[in-house]
Write a structure and sequence with these properties.
Transcription Regulator spoIIAA; 18-stranded mixed beta sheet; about 475 residues; single chain; 2 domains; 23 strands; 5-stranded mixed beta sheet; alpha+beta
Length: about 475
């Protein structure tokens, strides 16, 4: 086997040419060992020209991958040939390795990990900022202007007016933070009548079908090339990297309500950021005290719309449309994705029609409402965050890899936050994503039972009784 190496800021790229059999493994083992200095945290193996891998080769990869993970590093396998992939699958070890289609993609991921480790080393160099609920430390991150991408319309969800034509198939993208209403399936009809709350965060997808079981589903794709389709009726996603990392420590032992932290983040952002426009997107890795949340228990589709014509959040409809509030007094860890607007600020920079697709002011409490927040979260058993955490990508990945998944829900703003690492994006624009909705195949009417004929007639716009 021929092995060539290239080093870049703690990342080692090894190109392997030939067979990774016992002979090749004996050559690769010392090549990896020679590059296990403390400053090397990422090894990228270009296996495009590796035609064979044996159990000996797999053992060498596993041994060095474990050493890297012990130092918060990573090993990435790139451009693997089909036979090598099949061997990893057969051994049951495929999920232990990060796999990428290209070396460039793996290097980008490695640089992201490098940024997280650098972030962890810098927290002590920045002074903390005292607030009304605790201390904040800020680290600069990406400079690119951030935007919210919206698919669908919030009002269609709140009035339960979604039709099959309003759903759209959208690809899952690793590393994307989004929340919305939808489900997983290759076709809209696979989940149309059971659409529910959904969140994607870093490399995890979680959603709660609105079926009779009302149990959450979650998936952690392990390869960059995972081609997954998300069916959505409403979705908010972040189009750029976060502008700042924020480390929050509560001044209360049991934690402070999330709504108080939101208020402070809005207030301080207005004072210290020239690019603040009154709208923010954030991802938050939290250590929590008491956790509260709820979730949809009916799909917001037109045929299920409230008979009283009011919003599904109206007090008269809440019990029918939302599961009773989940409460975990013992607390735990959570990964939150939220989009918010402060009504006290000048929001005239945003297109009014697009703003209203994302946020809705409920007339019943418009006089007292000062912030509009959409927040979905993934809940885990307690897993304390490091004293000096990395960036949100690093810490979210750690939580997903090491934590024990419990639930997903709409996180209530009374949830108590003890400590949090926040990725903050200061939104400059709202952009619409309106992909063409997939056409739902309709079988011939004579093949359908009467109940199915009635549903079919509804979809055609014929109001049968």
């Amino acid at each position: 086997m021929e092995i060539t190496a290239h080093c870049e800021h703690g990342i080692v790229q090894l190109t392997l040419v030939g067979r990774l059999d016992t002979f090749g493994a004996n050559a690769l083992d010392p090549a990896l060992a020679a590059r296990e200095q403390d400053d090397v945290f990422c090894v990228v193996l270009d296996m495009a020209q590796t035609s064979f891998i044996s159990s000996a080769g797999v053992r060498v990869l596993m041994a060095h991958m474990k050493k890297l993970k012990a130092r918060s590093g990573m090993m990435a396998l790139c451009a693997m040939q089909p036979f090598c992939k099949e061997v990893l699958e057969a051994t049951g070890l495929a999920d232990f390795f990060l796999q990428f289609d290209t070396v460039d993609a793996a290097l980008r991921h490695g640089r992201q990990i490098h940024a997280g480790l650098a972030c962890a080393r810098r927290w002590d160099t920045f002074p903390h900022l005292d607030t009304n609920c605790g201390a904040l430390r800020y680290l600069p991150a990406a400079k690119e202007p951030a935007a919210i991408c919206v698919a669908g319309r919030l009002k269609d969800i709140q009035r339960a007016q979604v039709t099959p034509r309003d759903t759209a198939a959208m690809p899952y993208r690793a590393g994307e933070y989004s929340i919305g209403i939808g489900g997983m399936g290759a076709r809209p009809e696979d989940c149309f009548s059971t659409m529910g709350d959904m969140i994607t965060a870093e490399n995890m997808i979680a959603w709660r079908p609105t079926d009779t079981h009302h149990l959450p589903d979650f998936l952690v794709p392990r390869t960059e090339s995972a081609h997954l389709t998300l069916q959505t009726a409403f979705r908010l996603s972040l189009s750029a990297s976060f502008n700042e990392w924020i480390l929050f420590d509560s001044d209360q032992k049991e934690g402070v309500p999330l709504k108080h932290l939101y208020k402070e983040l809005f207030r301080i952002s207005r004072e210290r950021r020239a690019d603040y426009r009154g709208v923010m997107a954030l991802a938050m890795r939290m250590d929590c005290g008491r956790i509260r949340g709820t979730s949809l228990k009916r799909a917001p589709i037109q045929e299920m719309a409230p008979a009283n014509g009011k919003l599904i959040e109206h007090p008269s409809n809440v019990e029918t449309w939302f599961a009773g509030q989940t409460e975990r007094p013992a607390g735990g860890a959570a990964l939150l994705c939220a989009f918010g607007a402060n009504l006290k600020d000048d929001l005239s920079d945003f297109d009014e029609e697009l703003f209203n697709r994302v946020f809705y002011i409920n007339p019943t409490n418009a006089a007292t409402q000062t912030e509009l927040i959409h927040a979905n979260g993934i809940l885990f058993e307690p897993l304390e965050m490091d004293i000096r955490p990395g960036d949100i990508h690093t810490e979210a990945s750690k939580l997903i890899d090491q934590g024990h998944f419990l639930d997903m829900c709409r996180v209530d703003d009374t949830t108590e936050v003890k400590r949090a690492l926040i990725g903050m994006a200061y939104i400059q624009a709202i952009e619409a994503i309106d992909p063409p909705a997939a056409d739902i195949p309709r079988p011939p009417e004579f093949d359908l039972q009467p109940a199915a004929q009635k549903r079919l007639a509804y979809y055609k716009g014929l109001h049968m009784r």
